[in-house]
């Protein structure tokens, strides 16, 4: 084998091992987030939710909805932790550039995590969460055989109709605003333009909601903390308290 072919084979083998390592790391990170989110949801859920259902079909539906909600929460938590993870990994690499055991914190891993978070975020936002809601509310079409698949069919049909309704409203709004042929054909660029814009708009709405709710949450937190904690009495005047106590004692003595 020629030296050039050996070098190319070594490069391909190294790329393959790096890809396998990145897949294993991503799977471990997501599995850890999924387990953590499962414990969080099961801790805050009501006692009668998801498990304490006498009907086996309803229990299975609730467990599927629980899995979808846990998956979505894990993706959201991963999106929140991705920026701190990127910053910390960059600082670690700059601090220990020659360490062999931390070389897996490279730019390829961070880029792959960003792509996975973006893909799963859109999937959870557009499909998984609406599917979980409609799936728990579905009962199957009238006259069809009862079961899990009947609910899946009804949920799929309702979700498809909702998707067509939203796309039709977007198409009509784009045609009304643009009023030309290009605006009517712009809906065909759904994957390249509309989904990233939708994700950005919903992220902006979430940031605005966070900015609106943060002051109320902080004020509520300080109010509750002030009620629970005992105020210190270091700056109180003891002489004044003694005088008040003497006056109260004298008043009680006169009444007696």
From TrEMBL:
The chain crosses the membrane at residues 24-44, 64-88, 108-136, 157-177, 197-224. It is found in: Cell membrane; Endoplasmic reticulum membrane. GO terms for cellular component: endoplasmic reticulum membrane; plasma membrane. Its main location: membrane. One of its GO terms (biological process) is receptor-mediated endocytosis. Keywords: Cell membrane, Endocytosis, Endoplasmic reticulum, Membrane, Receptor, Transmembrane, Transmembrane helix, Wnt signaling pathway. It is a multi-pass membrane protein. It comes from the Eukaryota. One of its GO terms (molecular function) is transmembrane signaling receptor activity. Belongs to the LIMR family. This is LMBRL protein. It comes from Daphoenositta chrysoptera. The gene is Lmbr1l_1.
């Amino acid at each position: 084998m020629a030296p050039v072919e050996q070098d190319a084979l070594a490069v391909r083998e190294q790329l393959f091992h790096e890809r396998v390592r990145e897949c294993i790391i991503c799977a471990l990170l997501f599995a850890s987030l999924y387990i953590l989110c499962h414990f969080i949801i099961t801790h805050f859920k009501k006692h009668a939710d998801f498990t304490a259902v006498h009907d086996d079909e309803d229990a299975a539906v609730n467990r599927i909805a629980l899995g979808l909600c846990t998956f979505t929460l894990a993706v959201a938590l991963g999106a929140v932790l991705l920026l701190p993870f990127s910053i910390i990994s960059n600082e670690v690499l700059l601090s220990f550039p020659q360490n062999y055991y931390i070389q897996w914190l490279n730019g390829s891993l961070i880029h792959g995590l960003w792509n996975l978070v973006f893909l799963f975020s859109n999937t959870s936002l557009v499909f998984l969460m609406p599917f979980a809601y409609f799936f728990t509310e579905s009962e199957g079409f009238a006259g069809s055989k009862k079961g899990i698949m009947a609910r899946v069919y009804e949920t799929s049909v309702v979700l498809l109709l909702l998707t067509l309704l939203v796309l039709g409203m977007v198409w009509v709004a784009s045609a009304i605003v643009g009023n030309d042929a290009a605006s009517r054909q712009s809906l065909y660029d759904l994957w390249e333009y509309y989904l990233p814009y939708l994700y950005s708009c919903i992220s902006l709405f979430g940031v605005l909601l966070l900015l609106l709710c943060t002051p109320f949450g902080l004020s509520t937190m300080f109010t509750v903390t002030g009620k629970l904690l005992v105020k210190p009495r270091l700056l109180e005047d003891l002489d004044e308290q003694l005088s008040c106590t003497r006056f109260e004692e004298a008043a009680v003595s006169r009444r007696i």
